[in-house]
TrEMBL record:
InterPro entries cross-referenced by the UniProt entry: 4Fe4S_Fe-S-bd, 4Fe4S_Fe_S_CS, 7Fe_ferredoxin, Fd_C, FdxA, RnfB_subfamily
Necessary cofactors: [3Fe-4S] cluster; [4Fe-4S] cluster
Pfam family, one: DUF3470
Organism expressing this protein natively: Pseudoduganella namucuonensis
Descriptive protein name: Ferredoxin
Role of this protein: Ferredoxins are iron-sulfur proteins that transfer electrons in a wide variety of metabolic reactions.
Entry-linked PANTHER family: FERREDOXIN (PTHR42859:SF2), OXIDOREDUCTASE (PTHR42859)
Length: 106
């Protein structure tokens, strides 16, 4: 599966959603996750994300490894998103932030 990691927090550009052929994204207040049971590992979303938030599970950096479980858990909690929408209002500012995982709103 592919995994959405920390840099998506506060941004939600949703370019990933626009290209996903299987509708595997679920949306929370300030973050998106990928349903590992639906993702077909086509990888088209990876290059679309302006903040490089999406990785193949096997390429996730060690310090982002907990996002594998976060994607699995929040997929069950959040609704499907099937069409791109406007990024979050402060997306540009959030794009440059580091260590923002504490800001993830469930
Ligand atoms: Fe998030 Fe990037 Fe998609 S910021 S919503 S993973 S395009």
């Amino acid at each position: 599966t592919h995994v959405v990691t920390e840099s998506c927090i506060g941004c939600k550009y949703t370019d990933c959603v626009a290209v996903c052929p299987v509708d595997c994204f679920h949306e929370g207040p300030n973050f998106l996750v990928i349903d590992p049971e639906v993702c077909i590992d086509c990888g088209v979303c990876v290059a679309e994300c302006p903040v490089e938030a999406i990785f193949d599970e096997k390429d996730v950096a060690p310090e982002q490894a907990d996002f594998v479980q976060i994607n699995l858990r929040l997929t069950r909690q959040w609704p499907l998103i099937t069409a791109a929408r406007e990024p979050m209002p402060e997306a540009a500012a959030w794009a440059g932030k580091k260590d923002k995982r504490g800001e993830l709103v469930e």
